[in-house]
Records
---
Amino acid sequence: MKKATILIAEDEVNLALLLERILKKEGYLVYTASDGVSAKSILEAKQIDLVLTDIKMPDMDGIELLKYIKKIDSSIEVIVMTAFATVDTAINALKLGAKDYIRKPFDIDEVISAVKKVQFEEAPDELGTYDFNSMLVTNSQKMQDLVKLIHKVANSNANIYIHGETGVGKELVAHAIHEISDRRGKPFIKVNCSALPETLLESELFGYEKGAFTGAFNRKLGRFELANGGTIFLDEIGDISPLIQLKLLRIIQQKELERLGGTQTISLDVRIITATNKSLDTLVHAGQFREDLYYRLNVIPLSVPPLRERREDMTSLIQNFIKISSDMYHTPYKEIEAEAMEVLLGYHWPGNVRELENIIERLLLISEGTVIKSSDLPPYFLHPEDEPSDGLGIYKDSAEEKIIRKALADTDGNITKAAEKLGISRRSLHRKINKYNLGS
Ligand SMILES: Nc1ncnc2c1ncn2[C@@H]1O[C@H](COP(=O)(O)OP(=O)(O)OP(=O)(O)O)[C@@H](O)[C@H]1O
């Protein structure tokens, strides 16, 4: 059963810490914000089920925050906390959709029982145990060996380094490890290290305090802090600068961090999974990647083989992707003509599973009738000499990813508006943003 995620918006630091401690003990995943603006940014970034908010906060009071929450997602429950004198405000909060209110000063049991009374809505695809077979197609011996290894190492806390060509499924493997480990139900936070310049990556990973630098108007929690208790997946780790390498090494050694410009030390219990399609070995030899960090990250190395070395997976992957795309686009399932299948099986797939997934999605949409034929294939499949120079073909980006990118661009990255535009819930949009790594 998925444990609910709670956000505490409270400017009295000691009280926030106390609440955080008790609720974590009860098994909830807890985030804290010391003002309304930080609360809003956590609500944008995370799937929150319940907000415990103080009424009086410096920049935005609890009532305003409540109105904001009910506007963006009415399924997020809110409990307000208020001093006795403002009980009228609390009653007003109930009228505005708050679930309950707690008078300050309160008893710990009172808080726990108010939280337990809330019925949390379950996200259907996060229920139950991780279904390996439906997430990860593994017919080939090579992939089955990898799955065995994943099961062996999932519950050790050791850091894992996944190597493999682009699009082979490294992220899927990282996620699978998290889901079968004891850390499931806790956050799995992904960061694409090549997507951001050094300073942005630094603040994204480690967070900062208000006033840490010009433009730091509010405290920002780093991804490491958000991943606390769970797993952080650092993709394209070979691209991080010497400064970030050093900071990462310190965090691994000390198991704690301080936000930029901060003095408070935050203890960390985060498993680190890294991945790259470059050779870290070569980067170490070339002096571009710290050897000491490499050994810390590479406690358990895993390698995901390229698709052309495990052709036994292809037929199942193709069927799997036809099914997923036909569900997504509400089009009927289509068969693949034998000749077309032969061409697909014989292709060398430089973009690996991602390329296969995108081609299948495209074929399903462009082919006429109920069967996909070889004439529907991109010409370079039949004439490899015409293959585009980047080797990944013209179908590199999936249609869905493009649509989501566009909706986010049209709405300046506003999740609520983008979700509305796409006609999907904020929850599904968050999942898709994670899937396509559009969050950083
Ligand atoms: N074995 C598999 N079964 C089902 N789907 C898969 C499998 N392997 C990969 N995929 C799908 O292929 C796509 C690419 O996978 P993923 O993003 O995990 O690759 P990656 O190696 O992390 O890529 P990159 O190197 O670009 O970061 C994803 O949509 C993923 O769901």
Note: Residues 136-137, 164, 166-172, 235, 277, 317, 320, 353-354, 357 surround adenosine-5'-triphosphate (CB under 6 Å).
---
Amino acid sequence: MSSLKAIIFDLDGTLVDSACDLRDAVNVLLAEEGLRQLDLDEVKSMIGDGAAKLVERAVSATGGDQSRLSALVARFLQIYEADATRHTQAYPGVPETLAGLRRLGLPLAVVTNKPYGATIDILEALGLRAYFDAIVGGDTLPERKPHPAPILAALGRLGIAPEAALMVGDNYHDVQAAQAAGVRAVAVTYGYSHKPHAELGAERLIDTMPELLPIVADAAS
Ligand SMILES: O=C(O)COP(=O)(O)O
Ligand SMILES: [Mg+2]
């Protein structure tokens, strides 16, 4: 196995807990539409496949009008992007782990299905942006995870081959995208997975982000 030369991170549910801001924005949209409010667990089960899927799932769960979906997605983005950082926080140990990985000399990337603008706002608000050499959002390319293209685009920018990279995510689409790109995958046991973490197919599970450091240090040497 070739040694590790770069780490790619998922954002929502892996680096940051963004569910409260997503819930609040979804609920503003649903209130405008006269639909019922969603609770945090319902919203968590809808996060992961990008903003359009989140709105589609929210509208379907509350009996809204699916034929107006594209207007509702546009309105949701307006609401969410105006206030994406109010409650969103990095998970414990994330900044320290990113700093540790940089000290090992590894370039880092974010590959998320969240729109690029909100991704940058969140990384900047939390003081994390400077750790990353490449950031690919859900609207950067026509394809999103579980398609491998966003991961391959990030690696292209870093100049790193897939077999020398590791993806860290919280959801099935992170592991599937990594495997389709020929990249190794580790999954966190927190976040918003749509199925049990043990079934995601990752080579390792970690309960907290700092557990990544010894794994990477071993594999980078
Ligand atoms: O915004 C989403 O639905 C998910 O984003 P993620 O790819 O960072 O988990
Ligand atoms: Mg995620």
Note: The mean pLDDT is 96.
